[in-house]
């Protein structure tokens, strides 16, 4: 919450085991961005994982009035165009999907938070493309990277890049 309130974009890595609550932390961050008038995007490396996020978050956030869109490359053309338009006009507050979220032709009305799950499965340029669609004062969205796997690349990013780190070191009861 404190990072998202800063004037400069957040760059935070959230690391924790599968089932530790990373997705709930991401949902809380998305809600904070949405409550501040911004959109949030949650990108996963596979359609299966993106769909799991959608089915987990939609029943939690829709009753709160959060409008959610689903965007992947395999959507039928008409559904994809409807999602694109809703995201571009700001009718969608949380977009959940895959690489389709940063493709050319996808525009956000006011992206304030880019959440990237299994961040190690995306390249630097891919993560930047989503973040650059943001509308913060610095020109880029806040970025929350999530990983369950402390691979060497992730560890070196934390030392060499401008990343703050949060670790969930135990599973919830």
Main attributes of the structure:
alpha/beta, seven-stranded parallel beta sheet, 5 helices
**Structural class determined from secondary elements:** alpha/beta
Q: What is the count of DSSP helices, taking H or I runs of 4+ residues?
A: 5
By DSSP, the count of extended strands is 7
Beta-strand proportion: 15-25%
Share of helical residues: 25-40%
Written as H for each helix and E for each strand, in order along the chain, the element string is EHEHEHEEHEHE
Largest sheet, in brief, is: 7 strands, parallel
User: Termini, distance in Å?
Assistant: 23 Å
Radius of gyration: 15 Å
- Please state the overall shape, judged from the principal axes of the Cα atoms: globular
**What's the multimeric state?**
single chain
**Which strand order does the major sheet show?**
3-4-2-5-6-1-7
- What ranges have pLDDT less than 50 throughout 5 or more consecutive residues? none
* Mean pLDDT level: 82
Question: What would you note in describing this structure?
Answer:
With about 170 residues, the protein is of the alpha/beta class. The chain is about 35% helix and about 20% strand. It has 5 helices and 7 strands, in the order E-H-E-H-E-H-E-E-H-E-H-E. It has helices at about 20-35, 45-60, 75-90, 125-130, 150-160; strands at about 10-15, 40-45, 70, 95, 110-115, 140-145, 165-170. A 7-stranded parallel beta sheet has the order 3-4-2-5-6-1-7, sandwiched between helices. Strand 3 (about 70), helix 3 (about 75-90) and strand 4 form a beta-alpha-beta unit. About 35% of the residues are buried. The model has no long low-confidence stretch (mean pLDDT about 80).
